[in-house]
Design brief:
Length: 277
C-alpha cells in the first residue's frame, strides 16, 4: 500500500475528510518554499501538492501564474524541485504529489524523472496536460518506480474517460469543481457534487476536489461528498501578501483556520475568498 493509499485509508477509518494544499516550488524562493512545506505538514495538511513552475501554465489563473514567475526568477527548475523534495522528505509525514505540466518531464526524460522522483520520496505525480489516451507509458513508468499516477477530471469529462482514469490511476483522483483556470472563489461551483457522484459510480478510489476552495466552509462542504478538499490559489495568495518575516506564521494560521483550529487567520479574513486577485 502506498503512502497516499494509507493516508486516505486512515482518513476513512477516522471518519474525516482530508486537506490537500498546492504550493509552487521555489515561491517565494527555494529556501522558504522548503520551510513552507514543513509548516504545512506541521499544521496538519494530509497531502502536499508541489507545483513545478512552468513558463506557460495554461490552466492556471493569475495568482499561480505569478507564483510560477517568481519561482522561475528564483532559479527553480524541475531538477531543483526534486532536490527540494528530497531535502524536506525526512521531516514530512504528509504525502507529496508533484503537480507538473508534461513539458518539463519530457525535457528531463521520463525514465530519469521517475527515478529521481522516487529517490526524492515523491508519492504521486499529476501531469496536468498529459492526455489520458497517451498516458499508458507514463503510468507504467511511475508505477514501476513506486509512484502513484494521478489524473485530473472535470465536469465535462465523459463517463468513459472517468472509467479510464480510474483504471490507470492510483492513490486518488483529482476532480476540478469548475471549468476554466485556477483561482479562489466565494462559493463552490454548482456542479461539483454531481462530478464527485459520477466519479464515485466509476471507482472506489478516493476523490480530492479542487479549484476555487478558499474558506473553512468550502472545505467542510466539499468534505460532505469528497474525500479531501484542495486549496491552492488562496494559499499562494497568503504567501504572496506576507512579509518575509511573517510568511511561515501566516501560512500556518491560514491552514489552521481552514481546518477549524482557529477562528480567524489573523488579518486574512477580509481578503481570502473574495475572488481571484
Amino acid at each position: 500500500m502506498s503512502r497516499l493509499e494509507r493516508t486516505f485509508e486512515t482518513l476513512r477509518r477516522r471518519g474525516r475528510h482530508g486537506l490537500v494544499t498546492f504550493t509552487t516550488a521555489g515561491d517565494p524562493d527555494l529556501e522558504r518554499s522548503a520551510e513552507i512545506l514543513q509548516v504545512l505538514d506541521r499544521a496538519g495538511v494530509d497531502v502536499l501538492e508541489v507545483g513545478v513552475p512552468f513558463s506557460d501554465p495554461l490552466a492556471d489563473g493569475p495568482v499561480i501564474q505569478r507564483a510560477s514567475e517568481r519561482a522561475l526568477r528564483a532559479g527553480a527548475t524541475l531538477a531543483r524541485v526534486l532536490d527540494l523534495v528530497a531535502e524536506v522528505r525526512p521531516d514530512i509525514s504528509a504525502g507529496i504529489v508533484l503537480f507538473t505540466y508534461a513539458n518539463p518531464v519530457v525535457r528531463m526524460g521520463t525514465t530519469e524523472f521517475v527515478e529521481r522522483a522516487a529517490a526524492a520520496g515523491v508519492d504521486g505525480v499529476l501531469a496536468l496536460d498529459l492526455p489520458i489516451e497517451e498516458a499508458d507509458r507514463f503510468r507504467d513508468a511511475t508505477l514501476g518506480a513506486g509512484i502513484d499516477p494521478i489524473f485530473l477530471l472535470s465536469p465535462t469529462t465523459t463517463d468513459a474517460r472517468i472509467r479510464r482514469a480510474a483504471e490507470l490511476g492510483r492513490g486518488f483522483l483529482y476532480g476540478i469543481s469548475r471549468l476554466g483556470v485556477t483561482g479562489a472563489r466565494s462559493a463552490i461551483a454548482d456542479g461539483a457534487e454531481t462530478l464527485v457522484g459520477r466519479i464515485r459510480r466509476a471507482t472506489d478510489l478516493p476523490v480530492a476536489l479542487g479549484f476555487g476552495i478558499s474558506r473553512p466552509e468550502h472545505v467542510a462542504e466539499v468534505g460532505r461528498w469528497a474525500d479531501a478538499a484542495v486549496v491552492g490559489s488562496a494559499l499562494i495568495d497568503v504567501i504572496a501578501r506576507a512579509a518575509p518575516s511573517s510568511v511561515l506564521g501566516d501560512v500556518e494560521r491560514y491552514v489552521r483556520w481552514l481546518r477549524g483550529d482557529v477562528d480567524t487567520p489573523e488579518g486574512r479574513a477580509a481578503s481570502v475568498g473574495a475572488g481571484e486577485q
